[in-house]
Structure formats: structure tokens, C-alpha cells
Amino acid sequence: MRGVTKYLVSRFGGGVVLRDEVSGVCVKFGADAANVINYMIRYGYFVRILRGVYYVKTLEEFKLGRAVDVHRIVSLGMDRLGLEWYFGLYTALRLNGMTHEFHNTTFIINNRIFRPKEITIAGSKVKFIKLKEGLFGFGVKEKDGLKFSDPEKTILDFIYIFRYRGVPEGRIISMVEEYATHIHGEKLKEYLRFYPKSVGKVVKDAGII
User: Fold this and answer.
1) Which of 129, 130, 201, 207 could form a disulfide with 114 if both were Cys (CB 3.0 to 4.6 A apart)?
2) Mind listing the pLDDT tens digit for each residue in 111-133?
3) Which residues contact 17 (CB under 8 A, 6 or more apart)?
């Protein structure tokens, strides 16, 4: 394993490698890809992000036993897959400075991947939520390499998802009112054209436009 391990860490360390790429390397070294992947995960060289998608620790991270930042490695993984995505919901509230409360689940909004339950990545709980294509391409900003929804899109996503899940309107309005001071009405109106009319009704009933 030493040769293939050294090559993978040297070639992909600090980034993301896909299973097909590992398989290609293993062909050159005459190694079995499944065995190599299991070995790399077991001994801490690989961190599994999704099936067939792995973060490769740098030699320094491996030797020092450093914990990896789940936000950073998920960002690398989603970008590598070429998805439309951003950190949303409770994660976006915190990244936007709208709350100081810590939510122990990281929420990923994207256009392709759905998981009915939370999964664990680098020891952290992560929830993947899939939205329709029309809800991407606006309202996302980037800071320190992290992409997340701005306050207005965050609130509209909450309303959209909560309504889909059958959350009572009164509860949704209460949540919206809590963060109303962070919202710019004109930007909210601009974004509303991408959402169903039912979302706009909740916004109006909450009195923030």
C-alpha cells in the first residue's frame, strides 16, 4: 500500500478525489481500488464526503492528526461534483450573523443530492436538501471560501421548505418575524418571483413587505 498511498496523498492531498480517479491510480500500481479506499479511510488518509467522493488529507494534516473543517471539505466536494449548491437554513443564519445559536447539523442546499436522513462527515452531522433548479442562481454570497444564502434567500427557503413539510403557518410567521430586522424588503420582493405564490402569502402575512 505504501506506493499508492504516497502517490494519492502527494497528488490529491488537500483536495478531493473521486472513486474513478482512485481506480485509475490503482491500475498503474496493480492494486485493488476497493481495498485501497478502505485502507485510506481506515488509517485516516481519506475522509468520506459522499459515496465515491473523498477528501484527501495533506501529509501535515495526517501526521499532526489535525481535525478537518467540515464546511471546507464539503465545499470542495460539492464544487468538484459541479453542483449548484450553498450552505442554507440554520447554517446560513449563523454564517450571516443572524443568530448566535449553534445548530449541530450543517445544511447543504443543492440541485441534485437528497438524503432523507442526516449523514456524518468528519464527525459532523450534515443534511442534504434538494431544491428545484429554478431556486438557484440568485441570493448566494461567498465569504472565506464558503457559499451561503443571504438573509433574504435564507428566510424564503425556510418558508418554502416548511410549507412543503406542512409546518403550521403561525409557526413559520413567528420564525420570519424573529429575523425581520435582518431583511431588506426590496430584495425580498425581487426574490419572491422565483418562489410559489404561497411563499409570498406567508411573507405578506408576516408583515415584512
Assistant:
1) 130
2) 999 999 999 999 999 999 999 99
3) 8, 46, 54, 56
What's the domain range around 54?
Answer: 2-64
Decide which of 24, 40, 64 is a domain's last residue. 64
Single-letter residue type at 31: A
Q: How far apart are CA 43 and CA 209, in angstroms?
A: 54
Nearest to 159 by CA among 199, 196, 193, 187: 199
| pTM given for the model | 0.93
CB neighbour list of residue 75: distance below 8 Å, 6 or more residues apart: 145, 146, 147
Closest by CA position to 162, among listed 174, 152, 150:
174
Q: Which residue carries 449523514 as its cell?
A: 119
CATH code, 13:
1.10.10
Question: Tens digit of pLDDT for each residue in 23-67?
Answer: 999 999 999 999 999 999 999 999 999 999 999 999 999 988 888
Pairing of strands 105-110, 124-130: parallel
Cell 452531522 -> residue: 125
| Dihedral angle of Cα 15, 17, 21, 27, to the nearest 10 degrees | 90
Q: How crowded is residue 108: how many other Cβ atoms within 10 Å of its Cβ?
A: 24
Beta bridge partners of 16: 55
C-alpha to C-alpha distances, 141 to 34, 138, 147, nearest whole angstrom: 38, 9, 6
